[in-house]
Write a structure and sequence with these properties.
The structure is a homodimer.
Chain A lengths: L3 H5 L2 E4 L4 E3 L7 E7 L1 E7 L5 E8 L3 E2 L12 E4 L3 E7 H10 L1 H27 L2 H18 L6 E3 L4 H8 L3 H13 L3 E4 L2 E4 L2 H11 L1
Antiparallel strand pairs in A: 1-8, 2-7, 3-6, 3-8, 4-5, 4-7, 9-11, 10-11
The structure holds a DNA duplex (30 and 30 nucleotides).
Amino acid sequence: MQRLDQVAGNRSRVRKRDSLFWPGDPFTALYAIGLGTFKTVVLTEDGREQVTGYHMAGEIVGLDGIGNDRYVCQAVALEDSEVRVLLFDQLAELAHHVTALRHNLYRFISNEICRGQNMMLLLGSMRAEERLALFLLNLAQRYQTRGYSSCEFVLRMTREEIASYLGLKLETVSRSFSRLQGEGLIQVQGRAIKLLDSSALKQLVGQRC
Amino acid sequence: MQRLDQVAGNRSRVRKRDSLFWPGDPFTALYAIGLGTFKTVVLTEDGREQVTGYHMAGEIVGLDGIGNDRYVCQAVALEDSEVRVLLFDQLAELAHHVTALRHNLYRFISNEICRGQNMMLLLGSMRAEERLALFLLNLAQRYQTRGYSSCEFVLRMTREEIASYLGLKLETVSRSFSRLQGEGLIQVQGRAIKLLDSSALKQLVGQRC
DNA sequence: CGCACGGTTGACCTGTATCAAGCCGGGTGG
DNA sequence: CCACCCGGCTTGATACAGGTCAACCGTGCG
């Protein structure tokens, strides 16, 4: 696995608001996020955008490009970040010789499919508060696996981006935050979030979900 | 590519309403649909279901299982169908030696990601009629690439399944069908659909999408 | 034949969108 | 250093798409 460094190249810095790639760009590489957070968005014909992913350190973006030789979404840094560029040809070649890497590659790609299915579930059948609760719980879990606090974190997205991600409007997101806070389930201070009652949040999600 | 038959085993029949796999089943195989159609659904804790895919001959289901060693969704035959069972271990082994197959495997998995992103776009930002129009256009295109009529086909899902797939309720789907028919864009006779004005449908989708 | 299931349609309700006003905090320029 | 401005956020009032409930229809099957 250390041979990953061969293909990994150096860490490369990405400034806030900069993009790793744009829809239509020829697919050449995956990007392993070393530091920071990214959103992925797909653009509609009339210029609106739908946020399809919120990615943090340790995750990989660009997987959607493999199938088409072009990226279909855009990956935008939500803060100053660092990524490793994994040139796909080299990565695939290395994966060809290293079993563990090969399995992991399959795994990463497939997990992205599961993530998509979960988002479909969220977007297709949950109400606003439930979507937000699930979003927060999901973040909490991902922070936890990274060794950070699972009940206190800072969002890197604006209300509008969260809204797009959750298939809502920003006012609805704002209201949902307020309502969850009013019910004592979370504490909100701008983008700083504290989960006060995770089990109640889970129950909220479990009900209709 | 003919060697695919080695791993493909025989065509196996699946009766309408039967499932290829259930959520939680250990992942062993992909299924190449030879004949018929399948829906994939994810089940919610309280027993409700969200349709996440509508798959037809020539497509592959089960890709979501690779990452977890378990299937996360359920694949249900919507009519009597035939599939080829592709045992994944064997398939991966063969892909290891056959470049073209390897590329195709990556491609299939990755395309599933794109499909997910498009569904997120649909579920997150389109109104009922637009969702239905896009759904029909998508079907038309897939029938066309298979050599069937692109403007006349029979749906294999109930209104309720379509509704779940599109994040709506069955009554809304029914009304949307009626409205599109009233506007002269399609002709509906139960599950038999005729597209009368594809370009208008595309325009409808393009507007808000 | 008649039942059951899928589909359509109508009336009404509600959750979310839309429109609008105002707040807050941080960065900039006078 | 302060005033101002601007982007992000909250909150209220109202509109509307889609959900809900209910009645009815058609058809295919036991």
